[in-house]
Structure formats: C-alpha cells, structure tokens
C-alpha cells in the first residue's frame, strides 16, 4: 500500500460523492483556477484509496486540470456488497466507465486523462479494452503496474492474505501484518500518528470479498499487453526506481512492447504519486500537454 506524506486536503480540493449509473463512489475532487485544460481521473490500487493521490491534487489543479480520485467498489469509503462476483475486473471497469461518463458530461470538463496505479492499472486496461471507439479517454497512464501476475515473492504474500481472509477478521490480519512488517523493517522510520491511524482505519473499511477478488487478479491476471498496444490511444508508462510488486525492468519491457515511453521517477518506489508527487506531477503534465499539442 501507499504511505501517504500527509492527509490534509489543499484548498482547491474537497471530498465528494460521485452519483453514477453504477452507484455512488467516494472521491476527492480538485478544481483548477479558471477554465479546465482537462480532467485527470485517478484509479487507486489494491488495499489503496483515493487518498493515495492527495499529494498530486494541488500541483495538477494549479496547472489547470480538474482532478478526480475515487475509491473503487469495496475500497474504504465506497464500500459494497458481500458477493465476490461484484468485484470481478469487468465490473470494476464498468464502474470506471460510468465515472468517466459522469465527468465527461460536465460543462467545461475538457478531455479526460486516465491514470491507473498498480491494480488500478489492471482496471484501467480492462476498461480501455472493453470500450468501443471513439474512446472516452484522451490518454492512459500506467503507473507502477505490470503486464500480468505480481512478482513471485509478492504473489506469495498476497496468497497468504487470501488464505487468511475466510477465517480471520480484518483487525486480526492487520495486527499480524504489522508484526511481520515490523520484523522485516526494523530500521524504517515510524509513521506519523495520524498516518498510522488512517492506514489502520482504511484497512478495516475494506470489503473482504473485494480483497479476495482483487488479490486473485493480482496473482493470476493474463498478460494483455499486445491487445492494449493495438488500441489507438496515447499512453505513458511511469514507475519508480524500485518496485516490490513488479520489477522495474519488467515494467520497462512492457512499455517497450506497448511502443510507449517509460519514465522513471527518481527516488520513488511503488508509489511515485505519494513518494515523489512534485516530480510525478511534472511527468504527467508534460505528457498531457504533448497529447493536447498532438
């Protein structure tokens, strides 16, 4: 999961509810000063939430973009039912499409630029591949995501979580996770109390069936890179210099297979959006400006 640098929303942003044909979704929304150059729609990853993008809201809005980050079905403040089928990848992609349509219908929204982080990259790819031309998105950014299953060590950890979910409550799993992570990272800086409290609260708000469905995709998802490469949509691949989920060299090869640039954010790991937000924002803005210029 992403470790957030802070939780305070900038003055340009607010927590909102997006009412779509697929239900309501909790979101953070930042408004630009003056006319919007476009809309950035940000999709979080496994065990993540809209708050993973807090540090991107202000720099992107100040550059003229309306920014919307949302909790997917089963995540944090969106919630969902108990049937695991509701969290299948095609269902999450339909949610994304409904949110896109809602935002695109707003006056002055400008083109909608899609960004998927980690598992959110799978959802974004699924939505793009399922859509008919003309596509409702002006571009796609894949951020710290992979072409298929997680790297084997991370896949094994995810499988342990999936095995525990049917028989353990989320609080117990959280305590075990904290103990294991503490033993593995004794030299890590302690989290600020408000960040630690938020991560705990967010974890407990997950729908277990959503975690099961998303985890299954992460350890067994088919590689659909060639299909995505055939879609006529401007794309960019972004990663940190290291990544526990998908090796950076694998991400670089995936970008090459897609025929797009791979940009590495210096000093970042799996979550450049939270770890190096200013640099990440600069990369995104340069790409979206090039799309508009083209």
Automatic annotation (TrEMBL):
<dbReference type="GO" id="GO:0046503">
    <property type="term" value="P:glycerolipid catabolic process"/>
</dbReference>
<dbReference type="GO" id="GO:0004806">
    <property type="term" value="F:triacylglycerol lipase activity"/>
</dbReference>
<protein>
    <submittedName>
        <fullName>Pimeloyl-ACP methyl ester carboxylesterase</fullName>
    </submittedName>
</protein>
<dbReference type="InterPro" id="IPR050471">
    <property type="entry name" value="AB_hydrolase"/>
</dbReference>
<feature type="domain" description="AB hydrolase-1">
    <location>
        <begin position="41"/>
        <end position="282"/>
    </location>
</feature>
<dbReference type="InterPro" id="IPR029058">
    <property type="entry name" value="AB_hydrolase_fold"/>
</dbReference>
<dbReference type="InterPro" id="IPR000073">
    <property type="entry name" value="AB_hydrolase_1"/>
</dbReference>
<dbReference type="Pfam" id="PF12697">
    <property type="entry name" value="Abhydrolase_6"/>
</dbReference>
């Amino acid at each position: 999961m992403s470790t957030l640098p802070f939780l305070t929303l900038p003055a340009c942003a607010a927590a909102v509810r997006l009412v779509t044909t697929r239900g309501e979704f909790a979101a953070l929304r930042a408004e630009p000063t003056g006319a919007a150059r476009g809309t950035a729609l940000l999709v979080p990853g496994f065990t993540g939430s809209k708050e993973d993008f807090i540090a991107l809201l202000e720099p992107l809005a100040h550059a003229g973009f309306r920014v919307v980050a949302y909790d997917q079905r089963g995540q944090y403040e969106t919630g969902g039912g108990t049937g695991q089928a509701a969290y299948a990848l095609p269902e999450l992609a339909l949610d994304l499409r409904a949110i896109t349509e809602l935002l695109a219908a707003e006056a002055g929204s400008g083109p909608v630029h899609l960004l998927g982080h980690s598992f959110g990259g799978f959802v974004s790819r699924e939505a793009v591949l399922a859509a008919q031309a003309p596509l409702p998105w002006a571009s796609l950014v894949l951020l710290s995501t992979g072409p298929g299953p997680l790297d084997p060590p991370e896949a094994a950890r995810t499988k342990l979580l999936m095995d525990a979910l049917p028989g353990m409550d989320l609080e117990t799993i959280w305590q075990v996770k904290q103990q294991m992570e503490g033993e593995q990272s004794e030299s890590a800086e302690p989290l600020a109390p408000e960040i630690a409290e938020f991560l705990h609260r967010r974890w407990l708000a997950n729908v277990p069936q959503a975690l099961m469905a998303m985890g299954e995709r992460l350890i067994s998802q088919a590689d659909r890179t060639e299909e995505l490469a055939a879609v006529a949509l401007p794309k960019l691949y972004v990663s940190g210099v290291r990544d526990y989920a998908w090796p950076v060299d694998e991400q670089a090869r995936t970008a090459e297979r897609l025929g797009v640039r791979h940009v590495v954010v210096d000093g970042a790991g799996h979550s450049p959006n939270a770890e190096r937000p200013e640099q990440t924002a600069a990369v995104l803005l340069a790409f979206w400006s090039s799309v508009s210029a083209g």
